[in-house]
Every structure is written in structure tokens, then in C-alpha cells.
Write a structure and sequence with these properties.
The chain contains nine helices and 18 strands. With about 375 residues, it is of the alpha/beta class. The structure holds flavin-adenine dinucleotide.
Length: about 375
């Protein structure tokens, strides 16, 4: 049984605080925001219902260049230079122009957290009134608030659209012990009519799962079947909803980053590097507010526009996501074989990486370099 590190019972004291920046959600997006605020001297509070790194939220696959740029290579588990795609009638092996790696969630989160300077509290965020966030331990107030809480978009206004009507995919995976050398995906209707299955080896365990772009299609049975077909145990389940459409990145004075803003890529459900990318962008805007060079309203407008400026590739990927299941299986296999030309693969994967390129990462500010914080202007 996993050990619960999160405070329980008497250790769960009342929480009532005021801070300069409140970041809700301590996974990829939230930790990226915190990283960008290092050295500002601002009072930053980070809240999550679990301890940092306690609950893995994905299969933890990312372009290696991102781990490198963020100085998070010690979390790396395995690296893959090829992508193997199985369809019903063909298997193709693409040589990737950049490598993809799996990483250890706990290690990555802990190293990422060390790059920021903040006070961390475990609390469940229930909602907000204006700039007061309500948690199960009490209220926290801040002029700058980030929702990095994932697909539920807890701090949004109005009623949240729930699955299956929301633009969400379903993902579920098992984490059996085992090994492997290949990064594999299955685009095969025998597992899922619209979506794909995957197997990501990660240094002693394999993350095997199925994602469905149709939220009404349940993925437990196909996940069990895929694991069975691969001779793997169905143990240590991990699953969640995954957004597949961009949403407004700001609303009612609040900043949204990662899944809460639909920043996951619709074609592949790759959402880690984009959560980090938009988290960094959000953090930079907040940093400028703290430094007094822009107001909160200016930061909201700039971040909103930055996120929205990515709408085109997101729209194209959504189109492709919807098109692929309509292609007859034989034609799909033939098409994947036909595009197996190095120049085309480089072009396609290059564009795919460009949507959230690791060059966006700036050298981090050492956490000891404290600067004075100015009052936040609304
Ligand atoms: C099965 C599966 C496999 C995936 N594999 C990959 C992959 O290999 N590569 C990839 O790039 N993407 C993958 N994704 C997508 C990826 O997981 C997400 O896009 C990514 O985690 C988004 O990061 P985030 O920081 O926005 O949100 P999350 O990682 O979901 O983090 C949200 C944080 O908020 C906390 N939280 C939520 N609600 C509350 C609350 N009410 N109060 C307090 N805290 C709260 C959570 O505990 C969590 O720490 C996968 C998704 C699934 C479901």
C-alpha cells in the first residue's frame, strides 16, 4: 500500500493566510509557475491536496530536450530514439529527430520544486470568492491567483462542464514491473475506436494504457486487454480525464495553466511539456507584476493573448484527432508507411515540437537571489 504523506487528522491545522501569489496545484503547471517566481522575494504559496510528487498524474513521457532545458535530467528513466506505431495491418518505426524520455514523477517534482521558493500547504481547493480561495482547511487570499489544478478548472466561474459533454478524453494505465526498449503506440480499433494505446517502459516498470478521445468510451477493459496481450500484470492503476481543447487562459482575474486551460495537445494527449510551457509563460507575466513593470490587468491580457495565439496548431491537431478514426484501417496502415520518409518525419515532428519548444526555457534565477517585491497593482 502506498504511504500517504499528506497531513491527516490533528496535523491538519486551520489555514488562513495572505500572500502575494497563490498557486493552486503542485504538478507540472504549478511548479513551472513557481520556478519563474524564484528570486522575486514575493510571498508565494503553493497548495495541493497531496504532497508534491505523491500522486503521479501521467505516463511521464516528455521530449528529452525539455528535461535537459529544465535541468531535470536526474529524473530521466529511459530514452527512445524511435516511435513504434502498430495498426491492425501494419507496424511502422519512425526515427525521431529528437528523443522522447520517460521520467520518475516523484523525483522530477521534487527537483522542480527546489527551483522555486514558496511555502507549501496540503489542502483541497473547493472554490473561490473574488481573490479569496476556499480550501478544506480555511481561506487564502492573494491578488495573483493561478489555477493549475487540472481539468476540473476548480477556480473558473459558473458551472463547469462535466464529462461526457465536455471536450475531454479519458486515459487509464497500469504500471506493472517489467522492461522494454521501445516506445510503442497502438492505433487499433480493436482497443479503442478513437484514440490509442501505449506502452512506455520506465526503468523497471512499464506504463501501459489506453486513451479514448470519445469520453463515452470506457477504457478499463481495453487497458486490461492490452496489458494482457503484452503479458503484463494489471496493477497500480492511474487514470484521469484529459482536456483536448484550449480554454480561456484567464477568467475573472484568475490565471489558468496546464489542463485547467486545456493546454494538453489534442492529437496525442501530450500535456506535460505544454503545462510547463504555459506555466512558465504565466510565471513570467506574474514576475513582471511583482517587479512593478506591469499591472495585474496587463498581465492577464498578455497571458490570455499568448495562450490564445496557439489556437491554430491546437485546432489542426483536433481536426487530425477526429480524422484518424475515420480512415479505414488498411488505408491508415498504408498511409503511415507512406509517410515514413526521413525528411517528412523531421518536418512533422519538428512542427510538433515547435508548438511548445524547449528553447522557451530561460536559465533559472538562483533561489537565494532575493529581490524586493512591490505592491501588486490591479
Ligand atoms: C493515463 C494518462 C497518461 C498520460 N501520459 C502522458 C504522458 O506520458 N506525457 C504527457 O505529456 N502527458 C500525459 N498525460 C497528460 C498529462 O498527464 C496532463 O496533461 C498533465 O498532467 C497536465 O499537468 P497539470 O499540471 O496541468 O495538471 P495535473 O498534472 O493533473 O496536476 C493537477 C494538480 O492539482 C491537484 N489538484 C487537483 N484538484 C485539486 C483540488 N481540488 N485541490 C487541491 N489540489 C488539487 C492534483 O493533486 C495535482 O497535483 C497523460 C494523462 C493520463 C490521464
Amino acid at each position: 500500500m502506498p504511504t500517504r504523506a499528506t497531513k491527516r487528522g490533528a496535523l491538519r491545522t486551520r489555514l488562513s493566510a495572505d500572500c502575494d501569489v497563490l498557486i493552486c496545484g503542485a504538478s507540472f503547471a504549478g511548479l513551472a509557475v513557481a520556478r519563474e517566481l524564484a528570486g522575486t522575494g514575493a510571498e508565494v504559496m503553493l497548495i495541493d491536496r497531496y504532497e508534491i510528487g505523491e500522486r503521479q498524474t501521467s505516463a511521464c513521457g516528455i521530449p528529452t530536450l525539455w528535461l535537459q532545458a529544465l535541468e531535470l535530467l536526474p529524473a530521466l528513466q529511459q530514452t527512445f530514439g524511435q516511435l513504434v506505431i502498430h495498426t491492425r495491418h501494419a507496424t511502422v518505426r519512425y526515427d525521431l529527430p529528437w528523443t522522447f524520455s520517460t521520467f520518475d514523477y516523484r523525483t522530477l517534482c521534487s527537483l522542480f520544486a527546489e527551483q522555486g521558493r514558496f511555502e507549501f500547504e496540503t489542502a483541497k481547493v473547493d472554490g473561490r470568492t473574488g481573490f479569496t480561495v476556499h480550501t478544506d482547511r480555511g481561506d487564502v487570499r492573494a491578488p495573483l491567483i493561478v489555477d493549475a489544478l487540472g481539468w476540473r478548472r476548480v477556480l473558473g466561474t459558473g458551472k463547469n462542464i462535466q464529462p461526457p459533454d465536455a471536450l475531454l478524453s479519458r486515459g487509464l494505465e497500469v504500471h506493472p514491473h517489467g522492461g522494454g526498449q521501445e516506445l510503442e503506440v497502438w492505433i487499433d480499433r480493436r482497443y479503442v475506436p478513437a484514440g490509442y494505446g501505449w506502452s512506455f517502459p520506465a526503468d523497471g516498470e512499464v506504463r501501459i494504457g489506453v486513451g479514448s478521445f470519445d469520453p463515452r468510451f470506457h477504457v478499463r477493459e481495453p487497458t486490461v486487454r492490452l496489458a494482457g496481450d503484452l503479458g503484463a500484470d494489471t496493477v497500480r492503476y492511474q487514470g484521469n480525464w484529459i482536456p483536448h481543447a484550449l480554454r480561456d487562459a484567464t477568467e475573472d482575474g484568475i490565471f489558468f495553466a496546464g489542463d485547467s486551460a486545456g493546454h494538453c495537445l489534442p492529437l496525442t494527449a501530450e500535456g506535460i511539456r505544454t503545462a510547463i510551457y504555459f506555466g512558465l509563460a504565466c510565471g513570467r507575466e506574474l514576475r513582471a507584476v511583482l517587479g512593478g513593470s506591469q499591472t495585474r490587468e496587463e498581465a492577464l491580457a498578455r497571458y490570455h493573448a499568448f495562450s490564445a495565439s496557439h489556437a491554430l496548431p491546437f485546432r489542426w491537431m483536433l481536426r487530425l484527432q477526429r480524422l484518424i478514426p475515420r480512415v479505414p484501417p488498411r488505408l491508415l496502415g498504408a498511409s503511415l508507411r507512406a509517410i515514413d520518409h526521413q525528411r517528412f518525419i523531421h518536418w512533422a515532428f519538428g512542427h510538433y515540437l515547435n508548438v511548445a519548444h524547449p528553447d522557451f526555457v530561460r536559465p533559472r534565477v538562483p533561489v537565494s537571489d532575493a529581490a524586493l517585491t512591490t505592491t501588486v497593482r490591479a
